[in-house]
Predict the 3D structure of the following.
Amino acid sequence: MTNVLFVVSECAPLIKTGGLADVAGALPRALADHGGEVRVLLPGYRSVLDKLGKTTTAQKLPDLFGGKARLLACKVAGLDLLILDAPHLYDRDGGIYGDETGKDWDDNPERFAALCKAGAMIADAGVDGWRPGIVHGHDWQAGLTPEYMHDLGCDVPFVFTIHNIAFHGNVAGERLDALGLDYGRFDADHFEFWGQISALKAGLMGAAKITTVSRTYAEELLTPDFGMGMDGVLRHRQPDLAGIVNGIDLDAWNPETDPNITPYKATAGKSPNKKAVQAAFGLRKADGPLCVLVSRLTEQKGIDLLLEALPALLDRGGQLALLGSGDPRLEVALHEAAAGHPNVSVKIGYDEALSHLMMAGGDVVLVPSRFEPCGLTQLYGLRYGTLPLVALTGGLADTVINASPAALASGVATGFQFYPVTAQALSNSFVRLCDLYGQPKAWRKAQRNAMAQPVGWETSAAEYHEIYASLAGASS
């Protein structure tokens, strides 16, 4: 495999706000089996720099969007990293995309244009004796990379992955000079989108290949309901669009070795973890299934649907343990639900160790999202024998085998799907899962099926390798 440069705004274990970081941290390691070398270009946020060990200065950049910058080379958790250390852009309090109040940074266009510009420079001239044969950008934060590559006359193939098309990175056309973009390419064929500069569209139009994180999501993106205004662009690029489902890190998520839980191999070993989850959330033993949910609390994630459907679970002796944060109105509504029923408990915030315990101790993991490009939570559930209950959308549709009568009769079910994505359909699924929970033999069979599912990166990494190889061959 040729050398590959990832251009990405977050990467586990250094910095994470969502599944993008997990992919950026796991996929490069999975690709190592195919030869070549993957390096990850990541902004030097304050919190990232604080976690680095030994670094070397690979390149100095005297003026990058208004200040001095440098590229630091280092290794962390088996990853070869290039850190864009630009204090004027990244050394600040707050989050990586916004301030302490959640408001986006006003200079986000410049902050991520700088990341793209650095990526283009590496593609064109290399860094510290290393040069990529493929540049792989992720989401809108990397979208301007092919524009800067074009300006440099760099013909290295660019692959662009859509993790969530809801975010476009749009900014007023008046920012052309500030971003150093070519006026002549501010048109419908490149990065103009309804009079604005669109970093996402730049990536979509500039990519040799476009991927997204499940086959179903790739199909959904071609429709107005899911394309978020970019469905026309994607229909234009459809021959170059592929869906490749994400995997998970099988070392970090392993019920036999996970340090956050009582380890187990067979599903019977889940019992101590279930008791630990109930203790952590102040829940008593119940007759019905323990459902867990770890999520951002937004309407996209279907939290409002869950609140409406919850009585169908509770009336049958089920329980809910929820960990997450997000929309203040949903947080209040969840606290009210917990106050009104002893089988509901809510913790606002995020706790990595607790999330592992919940995945090990739950009977069911809930992912009622209105749309979900891939989703990793249901993959964690499969790995730990915690049956996913998911909406029939995106990667959730691709990774869970619904416990329909036919699937149960054939002995292949791994979880539950509901459609349409409504509170009533979710309520119906709560009834179905409670009924199946009352059949221990059938439930354990579904758990064993779930734990046997391939949820790692091996197959998907091979698919990415094939794309890289085809592009490298075509460009050589």
